[in-house]
Amino acid sequence: MELYNGRPEDTSGRKEKEIKVYDILDSLHIPYIRADHEAVMTMEACEEIDKALGMEICKNLFLCNRKKTSYYLLLMPGNKALKTKELSQQIPTTRLSFASGEDMETYLNVTPGSATVMGLIFDPENKVQLLVDEELLEQEEFGCHPCVNTSSIKMKTADVFDKFLKEIHHDYIMVKLSDGNEQE
C-alpha cells in the first residue's frame, strides 16, 4: 500500500466531502499522510492499513439516546469493546444504542463504515457530541477516514484536538472506557 503526503494531485473521481476534509486540513496547515485502499467496513479490515500507516486507526461509533434526541460520535481504541452502560453513566444519558445509517448521513454526511471525526465539519449546529476515550488523547498520532472509507489519513493527535476541532467549533468530552474484559 502506497503512502502519500497530503491531498491527491488528481481529485477527479473523489467525493466532494473528502476534498472538503483536505481543504480544511490544508487551510490549517495540518500535515497528514494518506493511504488509498479498497473500501473497509470493519476494524479487522483496517489491519493492513494500520500496518502501512504504522499505527492503529481508532474505532468510530455513531450513537444516540433512546429517544433519538441526542447524538454522539465515540472515538475509541479499536481493541476495546463498547459497554453502553459504562459510557451512558459517564455522559450522563439514557442507555445508548447505535444510530441509524440515515441519521449518520444527516448529521455527519458519512455512510456506515466511514464514520469519522472529520464528519463533524458537516455538523455546524453541533447536534453531535464528540466523545473521546482518554487513551486516544495520549497517543502522538491519530488515524481516521476523510469522510470516505476508501482512504485513511494519519496526523498528529494535537492537530486534530487543538486545531481542527477549534476551527469547526466542536468540543469533546473525554471518557474512560474499560478494556472490555470485564462483564457488563
Automatic annotation (TrEMBL):
<dbReference type="Pfam" id="PF04073">
    <property type="entry name" value="tRNA_edit"/>
</dbReference>
<dbReference type="GO" id="GO:0002161">
    <property type="term" value="F:aminoacyl-tRNA deacylase activity"/>
</dbReference>
<protein>
    <submittedName>
        <fullName>Prolyl-tRNA synthetase associated domain-containing protein</fullName>
    </submittedName>
</protein>
<keyword id="KW-0030">Aminoacyl-tRNA synthetase</keyword>
<dbReference type="InterPro" id="IPR040285">
    <property type="entry name" value="ProX/PRXD1"/>
</dbReference>
<dbReference type="GO" id="GO:0004812">
    <property type="term" value="F:aminoacyl-tRNA ligase activity"/>
</dbReference>
<dbReference type="InterPro" id="IPR007214">
    <property type="entry name" value="YbaK/aa-tRNA-synth-assoc-dom"/>
</dbReference>
<dbReference type="InterPro" id="IPR036754">
    <property type="entry name" value="YbaK/aa-tRNA-synt-asso_dom_sf"/>
</dbReference>
<comment type="similarity">
    <text>Belongs to the PRORSD1 family.</text>
</comment>
<feature type="domain" description="YbaK/aminoacyl-tRNA synthetase-associated">
    <location>
        <begin position="37"/>
        <end position="161"/>
    </location>
</feature>
<keyword id="KW-0436">Ligase</keyword>
